[in-house]
Amino acid sequence: MKAAILREPGKPLEIGEVEIDEPGPREVKIKTKACGLCRSDLHFLDGVYPYPLPTVLGHEAAGVVTAVGSEVTHVQPGDHVVTFLAPSCGSCKLCQNGQFTLCQDPSMQRTPGTTPRLTIDGEPMAQFLNLSGFAEEMLVHENACVAIDKEMPMDRAALIGCSVVTGAGSVFNAARIKAGESIAIIGAGGIGLSAINAAKIAGAGEIVAIDPVESKRTMAEKMGATMTFDAIDENVVSQVIEATGGGVDHAIECVGKAVTAQLAWKVLRRGGAAVIVGMIAPGEMVEIHGPEFLQGKSVKGALMGAGHFMQDMPRLVAHYLGGRLDLDSVIAERISLDQINEGFDKLKSGESTRSVIMFD
Length: 360
Known about the structure:
7-stranded mixed beta sheet, 19 strands, 6-stranded parallel beta sheet, Quinone Oxidoreductase, Chain A, domain 1, Rossmann fold, about 25% strand, alpha/beta, 2 domains
């Protein structure tokens, strides 16, 4: 099959042939229909986060099931599905506590010494985050995909696989915002815009969007932000605190930088809570002055929206089909697999929200 291959960090992806195996007992083969370009992919592409190479990146994908293993029960050939990079076993202590995205049960991956899911030139290949979506096909554990309404357009469905489930989940599951509460979203990219939209659906009173790019602030207003601020303005913290009458109840950091995590903390009111969903690079430290904890504020991380994707993704599809979740505005362009490097260049520039690769 045709795929975009990462052989060396910092170098362009190579379009080439990769071999894919047939499904094992609990595996599902999927014909990829769409896959979004995510800033998380960029971290691995640039080598910020190390990963075994070569590999095929891509983790925000949707497609059609073409084959299933003998023990698969919840999807069947012909189903439209969204994939998920953090499958959960459902039975470990973390899953029993409802912390599904934190599950690390190794049984959902093929064990060392067995036939790998992906090979290149006859050699085993590392599968990226259980998926490897920048390819014409995917072979995943059954717990890494969920069937969705076939009325859902595939390009919008792909976004639900990462940016939407992360941004919306940070509001619905991690922050658990109540109607009338105020919230600040730092970063108005794909994740941030989804968080803004979710805050609107949840009935937030004030929705503050903070981003350095004017066009993204304009988009944030379209998605539901009630006020916007320039993230690089040296007075942005005082501006937000003044505009909200003492700070916000909740803040969601969607960028993945120490400075924006600290910004999320600073714009909180006394007793407010911050949620960090961005991938902060290894070695970066978030600084909080000790006495500030006496203000009753709190901060926590949330992986992939801290929810249960088997439930959350179909619900997000329903929100889109019901006209409540705006995914049409988030997609900046639709490209072919051959245009993937140009798409990542636009993502690096900070001007683009989401490029989506469309497969035949």
